[in-house]
UniProtKB/TrEMBL annotation:
UniProt subunit comment: Homotetramer.
Post-translational changes noted in the entry: Autoproteolytically processed. The inactive tetrameric zymogen termed p46 autoprocesses to a smaller form termed p41, which is active only during spore germination.
Catalytic activity entry: Endopeptidase action with P4 Glu or Asp, P1 preferably Glu > Asp, P1' hydrophobic and P2' Ala
Listed name of the protein: Germination protease
Propeptide: 1-13
Organism: Paenibacillus segetis
GO molecular function: peptidase activity
InterPro entries per UniProt: Pept_HybD-like_dom_sf, Peptidase_A25
Length: 337
């Protein structure tokens, strides 16, 4: 019997994970994919450039520039580490703006995608609550605006189920009236790795598709649609049950191998045929288990309430510092906390 496993394939919105999957299938590096990695006091920064169509097709990601910040220590809710991550994010984001040709005085519209009534999906609206908006000052009292600030506006358009209007249509109307030079869209993502949920931030210059993290393919916020460069900022806050099952198989296999001193036979004796299942066979097993429920399950960690506030503040603080040269760390912390 041939099972249709497309619905249960390992899903991820992170470019670094797509690269890992492609390299595993390819047996080595993917041509046309440039990677640069830095480590800064607990923050791993991966800069990934998808340089041609062949590389884009291999990893399933649009050509463009991606930056991923991985900070496992964020799970510990260390306020000093959070400030450090915000500082690193601000510096990297400023460099990212320069790299894609955004001028220091460019007008910016920040769009917080997601549903503020659903905690794992409330990242975008929470960031919008904490960013420093200045457009009204430039409109009403431009002569009183100090040097070092730029024109920034922000909107949390809600979700289709609440408003009956596509987020892209709402943003397009705002773009036509306010004429920003850049859109920054913030949204929650899905990851294939449990370790990256709640600890990772991705920045990309390819725009964003609302709902893509949970499999909804709808009209996106992209330069092609809106006529304005679009930067996407995302944080994985959920994981699919099928993905967790794959991770658990690997973790158990690794654990038993380690406990048995690398004795594959003993590991197989404990796990049986599970050690020999490939990804497709694992997903077939997941489908068999989940099919009676009618769908895959989307899972978020129990500490999501605390995490989502912390990560929203980190991103908002970093954006404030990157977009407004006059804003220093002390002022941002006072503003966002």
């Amino acid at each position: 019997m041939n099972l249709d496993l497309r619905e249960y394939s390992v899903r991820t919105d992170l470019a670094v994970e797509s690269k890992e999957i492609a390299e595993g299938a390819n047996g080595g590096p993917v041509p046309g994919l440039f990677e640069d990695i830095d480590e800064l006091d607990g923050v791993k920064i991966t800069r990934l450039d998808v340089q041609n169509d062949a590389a884009s097709e291999k990893i399933g990601r649009i050509k463009g520039h991606y930056i991923t910040f991985e900070v496992p220590g964020l799970r510990n809710q260390d306020s000093e580490l959070q400030d450090h991550v915000s500082d690193v994010f601000a510096k990297e984001f400023s460099g990212f703006l320069n790299k894609i040709g955004i001028q220091p005085g460019a007008k910016v519209l920040i769009v917080g995608l997601g549903n503020w009534n659903v905690t794992p999906d409330s990242l975008g609206p929470l960031v919008v609550e904490n960013v420093m908006v200045t457009r009204h000052y430039f409109e009403l009292a431009p002569d009183q605006v100090s040097p070092g600030y730029r024109e920034v506006s922000a909107i949390a358009p809600g979700v289709l189920g609440l408003t009956g209007i596509e987020s892209s249509d709402i943003v397009q109307g705002i773009v036509e009236r306010t004429k920003p030079d850049l859109i920054i869209a913030i949204d929650a993502l899905a990851s294939r790795s449990l370790e990256r949920v709640n600890t990772t931030i991705q920045v990309a210059d390819i725009g964003i598709h609302p709902g893509s993290g949970i499999g909804n393919k709808r009209r996106g916020l992209t330069k092609e649609i809106l006529g304005v460069p679009c930067i996407a900022i995302g944080v994985p806050t959920v994981c699919y049950a099928s993905t967790i099952v794959n991770n658990v198989f690997d973790l158990m296999k690794s654990h038993f191998n380690q406990e048995s001193g690398g004795d594959q036979g003993q590991s197989k004796q404990i796990m049986g045929l599970l050690t020999e299942l490939n990804e497709g066979e694992r997903l077939g097993l997941v489908k068999e288990v989940l099919e009676p429920l009618g769908h895959d399950l989307i899972v978020t960690p129990k500490e999501i309430d605390e995490f989502i506030e912390d990560i929203a503040n980190i991103i908002a603080s970093g954006l404030n510092r990157a977009l407004h040269r006059a804003v220093d760390a002390e002022n941002v912390n006072a503003y966002t906390h």
